[in-house]
């Protein structure tokens, strides 16, 4: 049976990559205080899997200590299995790995579960969702990248909409309750079209942290747009 998603089912996951790192703790606390935030998305980059560097478990721990919101840690790194325990100890709730970085994806997802975290699988824009077929039963979250990962503030890739619809159909056919998350170029202009085809988690960096009228206003606009308003 096809899942029917209501606007209230849409979860917002601000991406901390776009925050002011000089005030990281305060910005995280602001997300917590404002309400309406469901998870904090944390981008880990190694300069090899993606052409940019961000941070590792130590910063995840700083964020963990500043909030009780679930931390959705997106690993854009090669050979991510070297760090699963470290991210678990730092307080990650979700650990998402890239299909393209994991030749032994079944083992990776099982290991993330064994450590007590929820396991996510990310797909680059150029990667076919067919690769999800044999691990759907192990995934708690599918992350469709709607930009090529590495940087915030990029333009939404339109073909992501068809891919999200395809992944939604795969999840429904498998009877999976996994989250379907979208990351990259999400703003009030793009939110509704991805929700309409079945996304239920919106990751947004620039649209939340770079809004001229502040984070609270940004969150309200995103939520309204997701609902089609
Ligand atoms: C990109 C990251 C995203 C990024 C999104 O590689 O995975 O999470 O922060 O930024 P915006 O929302 O600005 O496209
Ligand atoms: Zn991300």
What is the structure about, briefly put?
With 229 residues, the protein is an alpha/beta fold.
CATH superfamily: Aldolase class I
What oligomeric state is this? single chain
Strand content: 15-25%
Helix content: 25-40%
What's the CATH topology name?
TIM Barrel
Can you characterise this structure?
The structure is a single chain. With 229 residues, the chain is α/β, with parallel strands linked by helices. It has one domain: TIM Barrel (Alpha-Beta Barrel). The protein contains eight helices and eight strands. An eight-stranded parallel β-sheet has the order 1-8-7-6-5-4-3-2. Strand 7, helix 6 and strand 8 form a beta-alpha-beta unit. The mean pLDDT is 96. The site of D-xylitol-5-phosphate has 22 residues, from strand 2, strand 8 and helix 7.
Task: Throw out a few tags for this protein.
8-stranded parallel beta sheet, 229 residues, binds zinc ion, 18% strand, 8 helices, alpha/beta, TIM Barrel, binds D-xylitol-5-phosphate, single chain, globular
Furnish the topology, listing elements before pairings.
Layout: E1 11-14, H1 24-34, E2 40-45, H2 57-66, E3 71-76, H3 84-90, E4 94-98, H4 105-114, E5 118-123, E6 141-145, H5 160-174, E7 179-183, H6 191-196, E8 201-204, H7 206-209, H8 215-226
Parallel strand pairs: 1-8, 2-3, 3-4, 4-5, 5-6, 6-7, 7-8
Bound molecules: D-xylitol-5-phosphate (DX5) and zinc ion.
The site of D-xylitol-5-phosphate has 22 residues, from strand 2, strand 8 and helix 7.
